[in-house]
Amino acid sequence: MAPKFGAAILLFLPFLAFIVSAQEPAIFDITKYGAKPGADISGALSSAWKEACLSNTSSRIVIPAGTWSLSQVRLAGPNKSPIDLQVRGTLKAPIGQLPNKDGNWITINYVNYFEISGGGVFDGQGTEAWKQNDCHKNKKCVKLPLNLSFNFINNSYIHDVTTKDSKNFHVNCISSHNVKFQRFTISAPGDSPNTDGIHLGRDSNITIIDSTISTGDDCVSIGDESTEIHIENVTCGPGHGISVGSLGSNTAEKDVVGIYVKNCTFLSTMNGVRVKTWPSAPAHLQVKDLHFENIIMNNVSYPIIIDQEYCPHNLCNLKDPSHVKISNIFIKNIKGTSHYPEAVTMVCSRTNPCENVQIADVDLTYSGKLGPTTTKCANVKPTLVGKLNPPICANITGAKSS
């Protein structure tokens, strides 16, 4: 059986204790490396980072209070001892193009026992870049940078900081293990394009807890080869909700196993919890052990969605069903309001129907005046428990009540 959320916290404690050791860390203040307000601090930060990575004792890189200009930086390990990047001020990205137009704003790779803290702000200043974003209609669109790109980071703790107005995704966390985001704030307007909050892929044991995410796209998006992802006490909105996928477009994709979304609140988002896979796509993989529990939906357009006919901009052929197999889905205690009548959509693959779907205690009312909430179901026969409003999959023969 997959470990519960509490077990994930217990797994996290040993390395957290290592980061928060009794020994006073060595301090690397960027002002000692030439950082000055109004000037680019990338050189000073890189110099402080290199020395911290060589330290045989735990270290703390300090970006003091104030406003600092940072053109672009790429920080990489390995590090000999734990590092805390303490951001107390506001870092501002260039409004225009970065020095390396193909890179992200802040990239951190190959570190172990790493921490970001300090109460500071990573300001991507993306307003002008959003006006140029035409990727929804132009496959050769200009690649815009992420605020924070984490790759191959392990046993790490990112907390009590804010990322705002990224030009593209705010955060990606790729090929990483045992990482915790806590009291992490993401802020961008609801109409800002492609400003996903946190994107995960090829990760294991990732926790996002006690955080607020406001974006113009998914609050959290979960890609392939993700296992044991725990999202708890997160407020999402505006945005497009919390999504698993889209999946199935690449033959190299691997299974997604163990996704837990609990005690979360969605505020006027486009979607609530969503699983999306491509039809007419080559990949054969499994998505299983998904837990969506104790969730409040406040005026959410589409609160619960399993969509195996995900086909934005008509880029696929619906005649060829999805090859992704979805199973072991547990949906429990979902309450609130739906902006549209269709509150629950479960459209599974014709050739790979969803299996072992359990739905209990759902109460979603329509916030408009067109009538009651409804559901749309295909290729799924869920087990139904408790009070259910709307009636779930009433059009499906074989849906079981208990």
UniProtKB/TrEMBL annotation:
TM segment ranges: none
Catalytic residues (UniProt): 240
SUPFAM superfamilies with a match to the protein in the record: Pectin lyase-like
Signal peptide span: 1-22
UniProtKB keywords: Cell wall, Cell wall biogenesis/degradation, Glycosidase, Hydrolase, Secreted, Signal
Subcellular location: Secreted, Cell wall
One Pfam family linked to the record: Glyco_hydro_28
Main location class: secreted
Gene3D superfamilies: Single-stranded right-handed beta-helix, Pectin lyase-like
InterPro entries named in the record: Glyco_hydro_28, PbH1, Pectin_lyas_fold, Pectin_lyase_fold/virulence
Domain of life: Eukaryota
The family this protein is said to belong to: Belongs to the glycosyl hydrolase 28 family.
Name of this chain's protein: Polygalacturonase
